[in-house]
Amino acid sequence: MSKAETALLIDFGSTYTKLRAVDLAAARVIGSGQGPSTVDTDINEGLTAALADLEARLGTLPDFNHRLASSSAAGGLRMVTVGLVRELTAEAACRAALGAGAKLVGTFAYQLTPADVAQIVALTPDILMLTGGTDGGNVDVIRENADRLALAELRCPVVVAGNRAVADEVATVLDEVGLAVTVTDNVMPEFNTLNIEPARAAIRRLFIDRIVHAKGIDRARKMFDAVLMPTPAAVLEGAQLLADGSTETPGLGPLLVVDVGGATTDVHSIADGSPTG
Amino acid sequence: MNITAQGRTLITGVIGADTHIVGNRILSMALEKAGYHVGALGALTPAEEFVKAAIETAAAGIMVSSLYGQGELDCRGFRALFVEAGLADILIYVGGNLVVGKQDWADVERRFLAMGFDRAFPPGIKTNEIIDALAGDFSVLNGAVLGSAQ
Questions:
Q1: Cβ separation B55–A84 shorter than 8 A
Q2: Is B20 a residue of the active site?
Q3: b/e burial code for range A146-173 (CB count within 10 A of at least 16 → b)
Q4: Does the global pTM surpass 0.90?
Q5: Quick one: chain A helix, strand, coil %, rounded to 5?
Q6: B64 touches A: beta carbon within 8 Å
Q7: Is B52 touching A (CB cutoff 8 A)?
Q8: For chain A, which end, N or C, has fewer CB atoms within 10 Å of the first or last residue's CB respectively?
């Protein structure tokens, strides 16, 4: 089989590392394999076992043109979100995080209490997202929360996606204590208007640039080209493709996808919410 | 542009189980034209949503509409919600068909002011009268801030 025709798709799962070999020209899955995930020890072991399994089924391993991965290993992308009003910016932050394929381990609203801050530190999130205030709206709470987080022993990168009037000031407060800060557009720039795509993109960027390394997944980097996204994000992308279709194939339309995994069950929906019938 | 409007956000909405949106929409458009930033909650808005919107947007004022006659019930405890949320002094106006049937307006107005509204407006009010009232009230607030800063 020529190099130009095949792709190796890897999912570093919480329990199993799973592989699919795809013939791109024929648009066909030609083989699959799996091995127990071994991120805690050496990720190469699990991937090698999965590749051996794939080879046993295919007879020989193609010289893959693309080798791309998703990951929910090592607990997945664990995130904490902080917003202002629970049903508004706090909820928008949750949606941004979930849409990026993160596993929400804590969600906080209003001014963080000392107990809240202690809980956040104890959760050891991979990324914290700080939001609050529409653009031109409330400035006090996001500032106060940044001050409180700066005094804590937070160790993870922070995405600031709140009131643009104070976003840079908030970022400086966190940067000055050595945190890696990314500022992006407000998840709720106007009252009740969601704008979560920039935050999702920022989370995905951090995942690729930092989290993959932090979790030891890139120890296997000789065996793949890139880890593109957390597994739930890959499922959501797949669900979107299935719902919307392509230029050549019509989609299924509005869709609900339930992914029953080894550690979590994730539900994804693709719909514009319009009434039908 | 109204100088007192600049940089100020107002939250508008129709409170309770009321679906009458047209008057509130006309008011929202007039407020935007006067230079206010408007967070429009629309019809069927529970009281708490006005508070949440006010917190998130650091709103300067709340404009409550009620047209189906049940306003007095829906507005009970409204100011208290803002007090609870740390916004005790926020400007709150109410207008529309606030009561069932034809009642003496002076009496209706007195009851709504007693509930904590800063101003109440009868049916048939023109939007420019509301905007003038806002300008007056915000000028007084500006003056109070300047006075206390001296």
A1: yes
A2: yes
A3: bebbbeeebebbbbbbbbbbbbeebbeb
A4: no
A5: 35, 25, 40
A6: no
A7: yes
A8: C
A215: left (phi over 0), alpha (psi -120 to 50) or beta: alpha
If 0-12 CB within 10 Å is exposed, 13-18 middle and 19+ buried, where does residue B95 land? buried
**Distance from B42 to chain A by nearest Cα, in Å?**
11
| A85 touches B: beta carbon within 8 Å | yes
* Cross-chain CB nearest to B39 (options A84, A139, A191): A191
Q: Is there a contact between B56 and A139 if contact means CB atoms under 8 Å apart?
A: no
SS3 A116: helix
pLDDT in tens, chain A (277 residues): 444 689 999 999 888 999 999 999 998 999 999 999 888 888 889 999 999 999 999 999 999 999 999 998 888 899 999 999 999 999 999 999 999 999 999 999 999 999 999 999 999 999 999 999 999 899 999 999 999 999 998 999 999 999 999 999 999 999 999 999 999 999 999 988 999 999 999 999 999 888 888 788 888 888 888 888 898 899 999 999 999 999 989 999 999 999 887 777 889 999 987 777 6
> Is the ipTM of this structure higher than 0.90?
no
Please say if B74 is a catalytic residue.
no
- A-chain residues within 8 Å CB-CB of B11? 191
- Minimum distance, in Å, between the CA of residue A184 and any CA atom of chain B: 18
H runs (alpha helix) in chain A: 43-58, 89-99, 114-123, 140-151, 167-175, 197-206, 212-214, 231-244
Closest Cα to residue A130, out of A176, A177, A96? A96
